[in-house]
Amino acid sequence: MIESAIEALTIVLDPSRLIYMFLGIGIGIIVGLLPGLSGTVGMALLLPFVFGMDPYVGIALLIGMVAVIQTGDTFPSVLLGIPGTSGSQATIMDGYPLAQQGKAAKAMGAAFFSSLVGGVIGGIALFLTIPFAEPLITAFSSPELFMLTMLGLSMTGLLAGKSVFKGILAGLVGLLLGAIGSAPAVPEYRYTFDSLYLTQGLSLPVVAMAIFAFPIIITMLTDKKKVTEAAKLEGGALQGVMTSLKNKFLMARSAVVGVIIGFIPGLGGSVVDWIAYGFGKKTVKNNTFGEGDIRGVIAPESANNAKEGGSMIPTLLFGIPGSGTTAILLGGLTLMGLEAGPSMITTNLDVTLSIVWTLVFANIFGAILCLMLIRPISKLSTISGELIVPFLLVLLVIGAYQSSLSWGDLVVFVLIGLFGYVMTILDWPRPPLLIGFVLAMSAERYYWISIERYGWEWITNPLVIVLAVVILVLLTGGAIMKRFSQKVESGGES
Amino acid sequence: MKKLFLMISIIFLCGALMALNPLTTNGSGEEEPAGHNLLTFVVPFEAGGGTDIFGRFFTPYFSDQLEGNPLVQVENIPGGASITGTNEYAQAKPKDGSHLLTSSASSHIPYMLDQSSVDYDFKGMKPIIGSPMGGVVYSTPEKAEQFKEDLTSFEEPLYYAGISPSGLDLVTLLSYEVLDLNFHGVLGYGGRGPSRVAFEQGESNLDYQTTSAYNNNVKPLVENGTAEPLYSLGQIDENGNLVRDPQFPELPTVEEVYIDQYGEAPTGEVWEAYKQMVNAAYTLNKVIWVHEDAPVESIARLQDGAEGIKQDADFIENAEVVLEGYEVLTGDALQKQIDEAFNVSDSSKNLIQAYLLEKYDLDITEL
């Protein structure tokens, strides 16, 4: 395998292919940077071009793009408090307060470096799990997947902020919103009011943009102020990189969380940043998560880049895409004459390995590029709100509309946006709503299948019990884990 | 600074698109006056799915083979499990022959069953090219052996992992009904990939996959002894008979399995309904259409082009991978097959509707 890896390296480093990787990186960063555009859009944009391409060239382009989206999307999350893609929502929690304190450059330095490390760990994880992928994937049958969705939902408690009650209620509202559309297991439509648009349910990018971006825009207009009140942008990116290095354990831990969540098919990678954030919050001592703690940026940023490596495993080896982006990637592979499946680790092993290398290189180059862009782009936060709002509004509306090219998206965007605004005024936490929304479908699906297939027998599966214990520990025993991490991470500080 | 931000983005994007452009023959994004120099394939799914790939695969060949070498672009209109886009094509797209529809079994089945959200009529469209797909039902080696000996001998039901009874699963479910197999359908999986993984985990022991997925992901299981094919869903020939799938000539059809087990040929309404559904969902798995009201010469140009594509050496070579080696249907043969498939008898329709209502509590006329 090492030999094949070196061979794949020479394929990837061929200058004619390298150009396409850089092209992919460029597009990926722009797509990440523009709020509302996500990996799915980038993929759809490139798909027409890969037809008939040499697979290595096409992969350099597509994977180069996918790898860095989660790096580029940090800019709007930190600078404007608007998620660049739905994968960097958790970065806002601490990134935006830091920007308000004038520490945007430091926050982004830390974020990009964590992205780099996370992405590389993701690539390595993909490489290392190739031999064990099959038993790992088959270990997660429906009951285990159901418990994992419960684990995700238990994060609502951690992210609830001051009032657990409000957090749980917001999570329930999210579950309700997620139930709109065709039910996963029984053939019926819910809350669609005879509209064909609603049969597919609300789309995640629209809801995520609406709930986070819309309120910020209104606030920008009503307050008429800049993001940064501080006259000067203090702190350099390098300082952020150093902070990340000090928190290496948090970075590595979050990357592992990202790989695992990305790897599990059917869970959807969209909550990976929240889960990493929640874990970080529970395990970092003396934290001020939510008020501008830089470790609250490091955890989700490391995890969301690592996720891509993890999510390639089920996509390539089993042909089960975990997200919209990987679903299109599968289509792209077909257009290049490849089929996902066991052949990706036998006859097409070199293609899989070239994906690993592309992930590693693209993450490194993408992060370096972003680090260079910090200086020009962070001045955005010094522009007055009124001036930047029209530009953002156009971007957001396009972003919402492109998700299914239906005017319904715009209506949903405004309605959910207003709801989000009310939530901010009343100081209700919004993350639990999003987690509930994302996990509603899978939670229902796997619960239904578990009961339909096994009755109640599945409750006693060993892995189910383990996951139940993990959930209980997370909800109650946070203190124990905190003490544990104090020993491990005595070097970490903000 | 905002300007800088914007400019960097635009320059980057333009540069990227320009660099990519010479590599492709389908000029998506280029704005030509609508009409015969620009053909649009409406795909009622998001980019990247099977139907989208099918449509995109054909674009360069339409461009090459059609008189005047038009530009061909793909327009994705996702939503409503393909019904939104198909409705929009039928209702709102220009009927001048410049817009074509790429339909698949997901639009064919609701149409045949009179699903209430369907607002399109394939009788008002002219088929240009049609492409078949196959399916194979498989089980574990032990169950397969028992199945071959006596398929009525299953005391415990076989667990079947499916997606939704009103989609492609319907054909497979009907095949079990024809055979009177003791099975328990667990529906609700997220796709055929997850349902196959459920089989590998032992969560189910009865599954089917379409041709490409079977070849790529199930054949290795058969080789290492953890899966065994039972039968192929078959294809419908020009005389309306169920025949063996050309990609799986060694596998029996449902009809042969029935004869082998019960000593007589299957008859009755369930059997007729099954054949009808195989025709509409598999033999005509994907079809490219144009409005019937389009000018005669533009329909003729498309049909001539389709004949040309069928003969194109490069197409034949690439179709081996993308279309799994099935031969495409064109011209009169395609028209005849479609007339046969979509003329569903009321008794078949009522039978399937009643079946879905009774077994899966699904009133399709209300969806």
From TrEMBL, chain A:
<feature type="transmembrane region" description="Helical">
    <location>
        <begin position="43"/>
        <end position="69"/>
    </location>
</feature>
<dbReference type="InterPro" id="IPR002823">
    <property type="entry name" value="DUF112_TM"/>
</dbReference>
<feature type="transmembrane region" description="Helical">
    <location>
        <begin position="355"/>
        <end position="374"/>
    </location>
</feature>
<feature type="transmembrane region" description="Helical">
    <location>
        <begin position="110"/>
        <end position="133"/>
    </location>
</feature>
<feature type="transmembrane region" description="Helical">
    <location>
        <begin position="145"/>
        <end position="161"/>
    </location>
</feature>
<keyword id="KW-1133">Transmembrane helix</keyword>
<feature type="transmembrane region" description="Helical">
    <location>
        <begin position="18"/>
        <end position="37"/>
    </location>
</feature>
<feature type="transmembrane region" description="Helical">
    <location>
        <begin position="168"/>
        <end position="186"/>
    </location>
</feature>
<feature type="domain" description="DUF112">
    <location>
        <begin position="18"/>
        <end position="434"/>
    </location>
</feature>
<feature type="transmembrane region" description="Helical">
    <location>
        <begin position="383"/>
        <end position="401"/>
    </location>
</feature>
<protein>
    <submittedName>
        <fullName>TctA family transporter</fullName>
    </submittedName>
</protein>
<keyword id="KW-0472">Membrane</keyword>
<dbReference type="Pfam" id="PF01970">
    <property type="entry name" value="TctA"/>
</dbReference>
<feature type="transmembrane region" description="Helical">
    <location>
        <begin position="407"/>
        <end position="426"/>
    </location>
</feature>
<feature type="transmembrane region" description="Helical">
    <location>
        <begin position="198"/>
        <end position="222"/>
    </location>
</feature>
<feature type="transmembrane region" description="Helical">
    <location>
        <begin position="463"/>
        <end position="481"/>
    </location>
</feature>
<feature type="transmembrane region" description="Helical">
    <location>
        <begin position="316"/>
        <end position="335"/>
    </location>
</feature>
<keyword id="KW-0812">Transmembrane</keyword>
Automatic annotation (TrEMBL), chain B:
<comment type="similarity">
    <text>Belongs to the UPF0065 (bug) family.</text>
</comment>
<keyword id="KW-0675">Receptor</keyword>
<feature type="signal peptide">
    <location>
        <begin position="1"/>
        <end position="19"/>
    </location>
</feature>
<dbReference type="InterPro" id="IPR042100">
    <property type="entry name" value="Bug_dom1"/>
</dbReference>
<dbReference type="InterPro" id="IPR005064">
    <property type="entry name" value="BUG"/>
</dbReference>
<keyword id="KW-0732">Signal</keyword>
<protein>
    <submittedName>
        <fullName>Tripartite-type tricarboxylate transporter receptor subunit TctC</fullName>
    </submittedName>
</protein>
